[in-house]
Every structure is written in C-alpha cells, then in structure tokens.
Amino acid sequence: MKSVISKLWTLFNARQKLKMVLLVFLIVGGTVLEILGIGAVVPLIVLLSQPDAIQDNQILQQFQQWFQPDSTQSLLLLTLAGVIFVFMIKNIFLFGVVYYQSRFLYNQITEIASRLYKTYLQAPYSFHQKQNSAQLLRDIQMTEPLVQGVMYPIVVCFSEGLVGSCIFILLAWI
C-alpha cells in the first residue's frame, strides 16, 4: 500500500502536491466539525431526558451562564438551535470539501491524460512505428479508471478512517 501511494505521489507536480496537502487539511477540518456535531448532541440529549440535570453537566452550566435563559424550556430551545446551527455549518463545510475533492480528482484525470498525450506527441517517429496506436490510445483512456479506482478510494479511506478513529476516541473519552 505504501509503495502504491509513493508511486502515485510521483505523479503530482509541486502545485498538485500543495493542493493535496490542502485537501488533507480540509478533511481534518471536516473531521473536527463531525466530532463537534456529535459532541453538540450530548448536551441536548441530557437536557431532553433530564431537564434538571443542568447542575450536573458542566457544558450545560457554561451554556446557561453565557446565554442566561429565563427557563429550562428556553435553554432547551437555545441548545436545539445551537445543535441545528452546528450541523448546518458542518454540512455546508463538508459539501465544500466533497466538491473540492471531486474537482481535485477530476483535474488529476485531465492532467495525467494530458501529460501522457504530450509525451506521445513529442516521441520520435520511430517510437510510433514500433507502437500500436490503439495501445497508446488505450493508455491515455485508462487514466480515468486509474484515478477513480485507485486515488479516489485512497482519499475516501483516509477521510472516513480519520472520522471513524476520532469518533471512536470521542466515545472512549466520554
């Protein structure tokens, strides 16, 4: 697996490597928002199940000090609004991450195919006499399945693995 990733890394130029690092940071940011979303649900569940548990829960006490609601019901509504806000921000951010990820991978497809095509065009005439043109065309057309079948699963496994690991750590911590 490590050799596949190192071979794929050589396909990137410096600008693409920078974009890949940005993608990793966006995925980490999405993971933080996922954990924040899960963490925001816990006080809401506590408040719904035990309205008088404000004295026992530090998060709810802090929340009550900040907003100073009139009653437990208004604290519940504020908590619910906060959870909805966190989930909206999280989903908008994750939509942007998925959009950036899709554009990045699509640009990789076009970049690799373009570089391969330019290499074939700049090859000497003797190269083309020895090679089957159908084989060269197949090589250019196989860049999309390469990216979709190798790079996309690696990015998805990384992001989902990171989210799963952080959720596990959060649940073990709680």
Automatic annotation (TrEMBL):
Any Gene Ontology CC annotation: membrane
Gene3D superfamilies reported in the protein's UniProt record: ABC transporter type 1, transmembrane domain
Keyword Membrane: yes
Transmembrane segments: 21-48, 75-100, 150-173
Key words of the record: Membrane, Transmembrane, Transmembrane helix
Listed GO MF terms: ABC-type transporter activity; ATP binding
InterPro entries xrefs: ABC1_TM_dom, ABC1_TM_sf
Domain ABC transmembrane type-1: start-end pairs: 21-174
This protein's record includes keyword Ligase: no
SUPFAM superfamilies, sorted: ABC transporter transmembrane region
Protein name as it appears in the record: ABC transmembrane type-1 domain-containing protein
Species: marine metagenome
